[in-house]
Structure formats: C-alpha cells, structure tokens
Amino acid sequence: MGNRMLRQTHVEKDRVTQMTYELEEMIQYLSLANLIELRYEIERDHLELFRVLPDEKQILFEGTLSEWPEQAGKEQKSENGERASALCSDLLAGKASFQYEIHTDVETFFVNCRTVSDPSGQRTVYGSVRQGGGSGLQPELSFRRASDRDPMLDMLNKKAIIAYAQDRLQHPELTTYLVMLDLDNFKMVNDTFGHMFGDEVLVTFTEIINKAIGKHGLVGRMGGDEVLIVTRDIPDKPALRVYLREIRTNLELAYKGKLNGISLTCSIGAAAYPIHAATYRETMELADKMLYLAKEKGRNRYLIYTPELHEDYVKNNQGTDFEPQVPTKQYDAVGLMQYMLTDYLTLQISSNDYAFEQVGKAFRLNEVLCVYNQGDIGYRWTSEGEKLQEKDMHFLEIFDPFFDAMNANNLFIMDGLYDVQERFPKLYEKLTARKIESAIFYRLKKNGVPDGYMVFAKRHQRQKWSDYEVMSLATIAKIFELSIGADR
Hints:
Beta-Lactamase; Alpha-Beta Plaits; 3 domains; 5-stranded mixed beta sheet
C-alpha cells in the first residue's frame, strides 16, 4: 500500500512539473491579447483558454492538461517557477479561489481563478488572465462564474454588479453611465397573477434589457425587480437615450392590453461618471433619484440627470418641475378616499406631491410629512407651501423609543402636546419648534421592518381627533405605504 501511494505521489509531482514547463507556452498565448478567460473542468480534465472578440469566441487552446502543447523546458527564474508550479497545483486541486502574478522577461500576467461546484459535485475552475500593470479595469469576462450570476435571471447578482461598477468608476478617463431600472406596478401584477407569472415577467424584462444593451454594458439585479446597468462605449446622453427608449418601448409593448387593465411598464433613472459625480456612491445616488423622479412624473419613462433641470430636486429631495397628473380639484374627506383608492393607488395617475396636498386640504391639516428609509426619501406638504428641507428628513428616527408607544395599528394619536411632554421630551421640543399642537403618527414598514413614518399635524390647535379622522388618516397612510413602499 505504501509503495502504491509513493508511486502516485511521484506521478502527481511529475505531472505538476511538466505543466510548470508548459506554462511558458501558455504565456506565449496570453501575449496575443490583454485579456483571456480560462475554464478548467476538473473531473473531465478539460481545459479551455479563449478570448472573446466583438463577434466571436476565439479558442486559444482546448484539451486536457496533459495535451497542452509540448515544449522543451525553458530556464525560469526560481521565483517564477515556484509560482507557476503553485498555480498548476491549485488548478489540479480545485482550490476555492487563487490569484497569481506570473513574470517573464518582458511582461507580467495577473491570474484570478475561482472554483465552482454544481449540484452534482462536478467542479469547474473559472479564471481571467490580464496582461500588464497592476491596475486597470476588472475584466468583464471574470463575471461569468456561477457565484457572480443571479440564480434565476441572465444577469449578474448584486455583489458582482456593484464590484464591477466600483472598479470601472475608478477610471475618470472613461464615461460610464449608471442606469437604474424597475418595473411599474410589478407588485400589483404579482398579487393579481401570482409569483410564478411575476418570475416570467422578470425573465422577459431581462431579455429585453440584454438585447437592447448588448455589448455596451453589464447588467445586474439589485433586488426584486430593480436592475442596474453599467454602461461602456456609450459616450453621451443622445446615444444612451437610444438604448433606454428601446427598453422602455419594448417592455410596454410586450404586455400592453394583456393584464386586465394593469399597465406594466418600467421607470429608468441614469447619471454619468465623471460628468455628474466624482464617486460611485454619488453617481449611484443621482441615478436612484432620477429613477424616483421618473416615478413621480407618471412612470413609464427614463430620466438622465441634467444639472440645470434636476439639481433642485436632488438638493431638496422633491420634484418641482412637473404638474400633477390629475386635474386640479378640491376633495372633501369622503371624495378623497375614493380618489386615493382609484386615481392614486390603483390607476396610479396622480403624483405623490398632489396626493399629499389633497390629504392636507381635505382634513384641514397644516402639515403632512413622510420620511422613508431613515431620511433617504421624503415628502412634505404644508399649508404655507414650504419645501422639504434637510432637517425635515431627520425629524424623527424610526427606531426612536417614541415608536414603541404606538398601538397595534402602528399609530400614535396625539390630541395635545401634553400627551408627549413628560414621556418624550425630545419629541416635545421638536413639535414645539414646529408649532405643532396635535398630530397622528403612523409607522411605515417594509417586509415587517420599520422603514419610515408619516405625520399628519395641526398647528396652534389642540383637538380631540375623531374616530373617523383616525380611521381615514390611518387608511391613507397605509395607501401611501403600499404605493411608495412598493416602488422602492
């Protein structure tokens, strides 16, 4: 038994040594291009090295490791030989992930590999080999491994698309657009036709995006129906509009008249690096706010950040450059409920700003405030027409002890400041500063987790809220939660 194991050890060592020599041949192939992809199926002993050209996949080598082109051993620097030997050993062993720098007299190659196992236990090593210096774009080809792909859709997962975007946005010499997309009324489609149909919609949405973008960007799923495109080789807004228009139009046509009156479309927001922002985070925030503004403007549209048009919206987190999507009309409390359920929630032909105004006027309020996601998204209406300000976004913290006092319906009814003066002194100070005497607070949730709040307030007027007012405003808050929350 011992002799047999010894012979196996020698055979394995000889094989590694042979492949170490043959690595010099591989390096000659690598010099043909700046980037090459490596794929090695361990159980099949099948190695493939190829380069992806604009119109074809160019195979550089395909076969077993032992079939790699024979070449007489060349003298190598000891350090380089050790690295080459270690690389070959890791390929054979299927190490989870490994990286190497292979040096020659004239060039350096950076090798990145990862091993993935399928459900049957078959292991495949995926790798990318980049020629040149130690910095540069993370190659698109390296994101073909299974661990970087969304399990259902033909696109990258959230982690991979963010990694690619962050890497690309370290290069200000390249104009890159971050494009955020999501489906309009997707929750309604899911609730009406079921989640299996919803999955089919997501697959179709993916196909439309991939067909439109093609070689001009990478696509990734940020979560749910929200998608991020990181563009390449799209130089300016006119060029980008062509692709976005194709996506928007083809999705609208795919489901037009087929969903029992539900309009399934998409909203899109985009911003450019380094034209509009200097970092990934800043560019992403602009794109996300343009997506949100597209929703506000009536959905089924794309907006590309333009400072002269959108700077005020970004600064104040609210839109000021569009009209309500329904005719100007003053509702009484009864008519308002019908409007909220039909025009605003079901048909979605009304903007949030207009809805807030109607609620405030119908119930003779002085202020309606909605803050989502700890100050990232906000709406404010006041009887004086005051705009949303930064301080309004942080009026309350969603995990403030005050919210623990809410009832089972996520409500806190304040008939007067005396209800909070002793129990919540910090809130009392803030309400006093805003001259608010009575208010109804509602805690917004997403997937059961606190995600924001709404305040319906009256100034200079202490009052006992009627049962009808409490019930109506609680219902309206729930409608806002369903509408605004579903779009996030």
